[in-house]
Specification:
alpha+beta, Chloramphenicol Acetyltransferase, 9 strands, globular
Length: 357
C-alpha cells in the first residue's frame, strides 16, 4: 500500500476497479453499482466503486455511502429519498435524444492522458489575494477556492491549446451545478437519489490574454443563471423541453459550427468522502482514476478535496499532446504540484510547488 501511495500510477489503479473502461459494456450487462474490495499483503484495503451515472449523481452517491455505513453501525440517520424523481417531467425518448445529442457533441476520440495537480491552501490564498487586489472593488467578486482553481486551469488550457495549435481557438468550459439547493422544500431534496445537476457553460472568444478575474466573472455569471426560477421551470414539460433544446442548439453550434474547444469541470468537493468508515478506518486517499486511449471522451477535470482539507486536487484528463504543453506552463506550476504523493499531501499541501520540489 505504501508503495502504491508513494508514487500513484493512475492507470495501475484501474486494476482495483470491478469493471473495465477499455470497452463499452453491452446492453443488459450493466449493473447499477459495482464494488470491489482489494486487500494488500500488508493489510491495507482499497475499496473501489463504479456507479451508473444514469441513476445517480455525486450527491446521490454521498447519500448512498452514508446510509450504508449507518446500516453497518446499526443506526439510521440518512434516509435516501427516491420520490424526488418527480421533479423532472416524465422521462421520454424525446428527452433522452436531447441528452444524447448534447453529450455526443462533446465526446470525441483521442489519445487521452490523466495527470493530477494539487493546489495547496497557501497557493490558493496567494491567488485569491492577487485576484482581489486586481479586481474592481465595486464587483466584490470574493471568488471561492473552486472558482479560483477552475479559472487558473481554464486560463492555462487556453495557453496550452495555443501552443499546440499555433492559434487561440475560442473556448467553452462547462460546470456541473447541484440543483438540490434550489429545489422546493416540498420536494424533500435532502438525500434525494437521482441526477439533479445542470451543466452551465461559459466561454471566451478573444485572442488577447485574459486575467483570472475576468474568467472568474464569466464562471460566476454562468452559474448565476441557475436559480429557483429555472429549477421551477424544469417541472413543466414545455419549459423543460425548451430549456434543453436551446442548450443543445447552443452547444452544438459552438462545438460543431464555430470550432469551440471544450473543457468540462465537475466537483466532488464537500461530499464528506474522507469521513466514510466502512469498518476499517477512514480513508487515507479518495480519488477517481486515470483514462488513456479508452472510449470517446472529453477534456474533463474532476476537483476533489484533500484528506485534511488543506487543498484541492484536480484530476485532469485531456489529449496527450495538449498535456505536454499544460504540464510545462510556468503560470500553472507556480501554484500547483504535479502528481504529488498522497502520503505527503497533508504535510506539504499548504505550500506551492516551488517549496515542495
Amino acid at each position: 500500500m505504501t508503495k502504491i501511495l508513494s508514487k500513484p500510477d493512475v492507470y495501475l489503479m484501474n486494476k482495483f476497479l470491478p469493471v473495465s473502461f477499455q470497452h463499452e459494456a453491452s446492453t443488459g450487462e450493466d449493473h447499477v453499482t459495482n464494488i470491489q474490495i482489494n486487500v494488500f499483503d500488508c493489510g491495507g484495503i482499497a475499496i473501489a466503486f463504479c456507479i451508473s451515472h444514469r441513476i445517480m449523481d455525486g450527491g446521490s452517491s454521498s447519500t448512498f455511502f452514508r446510509a450504508w455505513i449507518e446500516r453497518i453501525n446499526h443506526i439510521t440517520l440518512t434516509k435516501p429519498n427516491f420520490t424526488t424523481i418527480s421533479f423532472y417531467p416524465e422521462a421520454t425518448s424525446h428527452f433522452r435524444d436531447i441528452s444524447n445529442q448534447r453529450w455526443g457533441t462533446l465526446l470525441k476520440e483521442g489519445n487521452w492522458i490523466t495527470k493530477r495537480f494539487l493546489f495547496g491552501n497557501s497557493a490558493l490564498a496567494t491567488l485569491k489575494a492577487e485576484i482581489t487586489a486586481a479586481d474592481d472593488p465595486s464587483k466584490n467578486h470574493q471568488p471561492s477556492r473552486l472558482q479560483i482553481v477552475s479559472a487558473l486551469l481554464w486560463k492555462n488550457f487556453m495557453v496550452a491549446s495555443k501552443a499546440q495549435c499555433g492559434t487561440q481557438r475560442p473556448c467553452m468550459v462547462t460546470h456541473a451545478v447541484n440543483l438540490r439547493q434550489f429545489m422546493e422544500e416540498s420536494l424533500h431534496p435532502e438525500n434525494s437519489v437521482g441526477n439533479f445537476i445542470w451543466i452551465c457553460t461559459a466561454e471566451h472568444t478573444g485572442e488577447e490574454e485574459v486575467g483570472l478575474d475576468e474568467l472568474i466573472s464569466k464562471l460566476k455569471n454562468s452559474i448565476q443563471h441557475v436559480d429557483r426560477d429555472l429549477v421551477a421551470r424544469f417541472r413543466r414539460y414545455e419549459d423543460a423541453s425548451s430549456i434543453l433544446e436551446d442548450d443543445v442548439k447552443n452547444v452544438c453550434s459552438k462545438t460543431m459550427d464555430e470550432g469551440f474547444e471544450t473543457f468540462g469541470f465537475t466537483s466532488w468537493y464537500n461530499f464528506g468522502a474522507y469521513e466514510l468508515d466502512f469498518g476499517w478506518g477512514k480513508p487515507i486517499w479518495v480519488s477517481t482514476t486515470g483514462l488513456r486511449n479508452t472510449l470517446p471522451c472529453l477534456n474533463m477535470i474532476v476537483l476533489l478535496e484533500t484528506r485534511f482539507r488543506d487543498g484541492i486536487e484536480a484530476w485532469v484528463t485531456i489529449e496527450e499532446e495538449k498535456m505536454k504543453h499544460l504540464e510545462s506552463c510556468p503560470d500553472l506550476l507556480t501554484y500547483a504540484t504535479l502528481d504529488p504523493s498522497p502520503l505527503t499531501m497533508g504535510s506539504s499541501a499548504g505550500s506551492n510547488s516551488k517549496s515542495q520540489t
